[in-house]
Amino acid sequence: MSSNNISQVEGIDLYSTLNETTEKNDCIACREEFFKLIAEFSEDWVYWINPDNTISYMSPSAKHITGYEPDELAKYPNFLSHITYAKDLSKSKNHIRALKTGKNFCSEDFRIIKKNGEVRWISHMCQAVYDIDDKYIGRYVRNVDISEKMNPTVYKLQRDKLVKNICEWASVGYYQIYFDGRLKSANKMFLDMIGYDMDELKNNPNFENEFVFDGDKRKEFKSALQKYGFVKDFESTWIKRGWNILYLKETAKVCSNLSGGNAYYEAFVYDVTERKNVEFHTIAATTRKQKYDELITGFFTNISHEIKTPLNVIINMVSLLKSDLEANETKSINGDIHIIQTECEKIKRTINLILEMSQLHSGTYDLSFSEFDIMKEIFEPLILEYTDKIKEKNLLLTMTNNLSNAKIIGDRYGIYQIFLQLLDNALKYTSTGKIEIVLYNDESNHINVEIKDSGIGIEAEYIPFLFNVFSQEDNGYSRMFQGTGLGLAIVKKHCELNDAFIDFESEKYKGTKVKVKFNR
């Protein structure tokens, strides 16, 4: 196509790609289709004004910028005057006047009122278009929304309001916090998470320091924000009303103020407290299970040791007894029989402890309350039972009875078991020195019993675990003292059933004092 056949108009050259042999009507049809194709996908609001001032095309973006459907506007050629903001009507009139005087290109920035009443700024550009015969065929009009550029403060407020509303609909917390720690704004969802109203927080200069639990982790969060401008899925611990812990997942970005500085940051917030608590409980349950498995393993190891050791002694003593019988060694026979009896008693005691713990744990223990004399029914039989054992270890056992009233109401068997186990422990762990038993009534006439020994004592950090089932300070085959780890667990259970309080004081290698106070 020669340059003589190309129409040179101000602004737009619509014909540079047309073949010289193309008919005029085909050119116009092709041009219109091409124009519509571009306009359909444009964010700009585009329309075409015919020479008779009717509108033959309007792009879909009209709805986005004005709130009106394209067909609503296309019916009224003078619609622009009707939607122009009152204070900017003079700009609109000047624009129309310029068109009527034959000006080919003109542009103007003014405000319009959307269908919902919202005021927006647009940049309006109008271009006259001529065909190849230099005949005027209409005007191409393009409008661009420039609200953010013309009024950034209002736009920002509208945007913040929109974000808050979206967050409310999506059940997502949202906040804006200045880098100095003050709360700028927050939606209702976030305020509900922490349990406060905005009026309670807006004048708090230390909001962030008071409500975020881990200060060091918060510094890490803000440092990453300032470095990268964006932080995603950061988990943090907050404090809500009532000093309850709140676990949040935050996705935040730095926001600029109007002067360009990084004045504050905003974040979308999800409450993950329930998930974190489930995780913690799962970890705790796993840890407890591992600990329980270890205790069970240790228990069965101990039980095996507790039963196999006396059985091996019995088997060996039976062999010796057989030899002594053949040799008619009467003195040795009596000693052999005594050892066999002692070891059998150990096996019997181990089995009884297992059965008793099973009953107490399952709730099948037969509790029987009655009134009885604790001295006559409990301590006198105990002292008698342990006299020989005390003598064997060359220990001193003293008992001081300061009771003005020795009557007690409780489960006789259970109370006997309490002091049987405590006295047995004192004897087992005391190699030299003495064991003291002191009984007295306190100011409320309640019976108190103290058992002191000069034994090996207990490490202070182990005392909280004394009453755990299968618990022993020294476990394994190499330990110095035998035992199942059930004795003190049974003592604790019987104390609970008899409304008694038990307390331990101990120092390693200096001895132990146990106090039992009955509240009946």
Walkthrough of the structure:
The structure is a single chain. This protein is of the alpha+beta class and 520 residues long. The chain is built from 16 helices and 17 strands. It has helices at residues 24-40, 61-66, 70-74, 79-83, 89-100, 147-150, 152-169, 188-194, 198-201, 207-211, 215-228, 273-327, 330-362, 374-392, 412-428, 487-497, and strands at residues 45-49, 55-58, 105-113, 119-130, 136-145, 173-178, 183-186, 230-240, 244-255, 264-271, 369-373, 396-402, 407-411, 434-441, 447-453, 500-507, 511-518. The strands form 4 sheets. A 5-stranded antiparallel beta sheet has the order 2-1-5-4-3. Strands 7-6-10-9-8 form a 5-stranded antiparallel beta sheet, with helices on both faces. Strand 16 (500-507) and strand 17 (511-518) form a beta hairpin. Helix 12 (273-327) packs antiparallel against helix 13, helix 13 crosses helix 16 (487-497) and helix 14 runs parallel beside helix 15. The termini are far apart. Residues 1-22 and 475-482 have low confidence and may be disordered.
What topology does this entry show?
Blueprint: H1 24-40, E1 45-49, E2 55-58, H2 61-66, H3 70-74, H4 79-83, H5 89-100, E3 105-113, E4 119-130, E5 136-145, H6 147-150, H7 152-169, E6 173-178, E7 183-186, H8 188-194, H9 198-201, H10 207-211, H11 215-228, E8 230-240, E9 244-255, E10 264-271, H12 273-327, H13 330-362, E11 369-373, H14 374-392, E12 396-402, E13 407-411, H15 412-428, E14 434-441, E15 447-453, H16 487-497, E16 500-507, E17 511-518
Parallel strand pairs: 12-14
Antiparallel strand pairs: 1-2, 1-5, 3-4, 4-5, 6-7, 6-10, 8-9, 9-10, 11-13, 14-15, 15-17, 16-17
